[in-house]
Design brief:
8 helices, about 220 residues, alpha+beta
Length: about 220
């Protein structure tokens, strides 16, 4: 388990493990990464959103792809006090270390709302989002960090492409089951000894495809 000593598990790392254990090993244990791994349209929009909520108003040209998206976001959630963009929430105990990289969190005296921006070209699948590790980690870490009941915490996913959102409320029972599930998952990953490659459609978009399958991809896919 010494290989995992410095790993803070996130939604992304757990999803990577479920997609392909070999890819997880290369990125999170061997620490092999490309400089362009995180540079895409979604990350550019997240930067615009962050700048807006810290008080910077971008004047975008109407022809830009993100012009409508940013305007939709401003209409959906106006800038207010007690909003904190790009907020990292960490949790650690003897069995697991978790990090939630939240796009925006609004902290009030008796209520906390987490916001996450999605720029996918597909509409929300509520059932899938409720079961996602992103949802579980975000809500878990907020409940652990702040002195507030899980019943007063909610998570809102918003997609400015469709001007649509999904709100997921939390509860004491949800928190109890989330904690058990996350612990079981991470202990299982830490006990993994055979990080086998899993071949599938995801290989076509994987930066390690040229190494594993001798096939090259465009950097634009990353």
């Amino acid at each position: 388990m010494s290989d995992f000593k410095n790993i803070q598990f996130s939604q992304s790392s757990i999803d990577t493990y479920d997609t392909c254990r070999l890819k997880f090993k290369k990125i999170y244990i061997d620490n092999i990464k490309w400089s362009k791994d995180d540079q895409n349209f979604g990350s550019e929009f997240h930067l615009l959103a962050q700048r807006y909520y810290i008080g910077i108003d971008e004047q975008l040209e109407q022809g830009r792809p993100d012009y409508m998206l940013l305007n939709n976001l401003k209409k959906f959630l106006k800038r207010e006090k007690n909003m904190y963009p790009e907020y990292n929430i960490k949790y650690k105990d003897e069995e697991m270390s978790l990090i939630a990289k939240v796009d925006l969190i609004k902290i009030e005296k008796e209520k906390i709302i987490i916001y996450d921006w999605k720029t996918n070209k597909s509409k929300f699948n509520r059932s899938k989002m409720e079961k996602s590790y992103q949802t579980k980690i975000y809500l878990h870490n907020v409940a652990e960090k702040f002195n507030i009941s899980p019943n007063d915490i909610s998570l809102i996913y918003y997609n400015p492409r469709f001007d649509n959102y999904v709100k997921i409320d939390y509860s004491d029972n949800d928190h109890k089951y989330n904690k058990m599930e996350l612990k079981d998952k991470i202990v299982g990953i830490k006990n993994e000894r055979d990080f086998k490659q899993k071949i599938g459609k995801h290989c076509s978009f994987c930066q390690f495809n040229s190494i594993c399958n001798k096939q090259f991809i465009s950097i634009d896919c990353l």
